Amino acid sequence: MSTHALDDAIGAANAAQKPAVIFIHGLWLKPSSWDRWVEMFAAAGYAALAPGWPAEMGGAAAPETIGEVAAHFAAIAGALDRRPAVLGHSFGGLIAQILAGRGLSAATVAIDPAPFRGVLPLPVSALRSAWPVLQNPLNANRNVSLTPEQFRYAFANSVPEAESDALYETYQAPAPGRPIFQAAAANLNPWTEAHVDSEAVERGPLLIISGEHDHTVPPSVARAAYDRQKRNQHAVTEFAQFPQRGHSLTIDSGWREVAETALGFVGRFV
Question: Are the C-beta atoms of residues 114 and 93 closer than 8 Å to each other?
Fold first, then answer.
């Protein structure tokens, strides 16, 4: 989606007075990874937007920081006449929670969300998934692609190899390395941009979704994020885990079940 197309989509959503939903993709995926979700939510009566990250839309130099990405999506949410629902996957799930903590989301769904400061588990599989970036400090200043084998381990370990290869060809894209270094050091840096105000009064309802076999964001990480978020005394906080699903659960052949769960949650509040 170009900047001009995004402006048009925001204008159309405001003019139609439909409830809006913003989809935020994660690292190593394209905005088109949300296309089927956008169609489902649009059919349910929502104005659905799936913008790219700042550099994808020409709004920042790559690689972006977590703060720059959050500011980008906060501006999009703020341009809508009323608070949208915000759905994010992986690092998009982290950004979605940041926006929720700022009171910018009417309802939030964070799917296999990247960890924020205070989320302590660090499973070996998560380190291995991030190793293509973390193995070289110079990757903090450039974009990094995954090989098909790396994508299969990090994303598509729970689907057949042929499906993994097809997902790689369709959706994989180079990703900025800097956010991974930021998230990896979040618990060592009091001023980290990987910070979520989980107890904000205006946070709104939140659903965290986890895949049982996710290597990149294992259930222990997603559950730790939920444990921090459920301390919020002002809004609903829920957790759902999908059995035998990996990090590709938003794009693989089982995407619809996950999307319907997210749609049902959003529909209760928006």
Answer: yes
User: How are beta strands 85-89 and 107-111 bridged, if at all?
Assistant: parallel
* Inter-residue contact 263 to 43 (CB < 8 Å): no
Please state, in angstroms and rounded to a whole number, the distance separating the CA atoms of residues 94 and 44: 25
pLDDT at 99 over 70: yes
The 8-class DSSP code of residue 172 comes to B
Q: In angstroms, rounded to a whole number, what is the distance separating the alpha carbons of residues 192 and 164? A: 34
In whole angstroms, what is the distance from residue 128 CA to residue 136 CA? 13
In whole angstroms, give the CA distance from residue 229 to residue 250.
22
Cα 233 from Cα 213, distance rounded (Å): 30
Q: Measuring CA to CA, which residue among 253, 252, 269 is closest to residue 89?
A: 252
Long-range CB contacts for residues 125-130, cutoff 8 Å, separation at least 24: 125/215, 125/216, 125/218, 126/215, 126/216, 126/217, 126/218, 126/221, 128/153, 128/215, 129/153, 129/154, 129/215, 129/216, 129/247, 130/180, 130/184, 130/216
pLDDT band at 62 (very low <50, low <70, confident <90, very high): low
Distance, in Å, from the CA atom of 53 to the CA atom of 10, rounded to the nearest integer, reads: 16
**pLDDT tens per residue, range 215-266:** 999 999 999 999 999 999 999 999 999 999 999 999 999 999 999 999 999 9
Residue type, 96: A
Q: Which residue has the tokens 């998560």?
A: 126
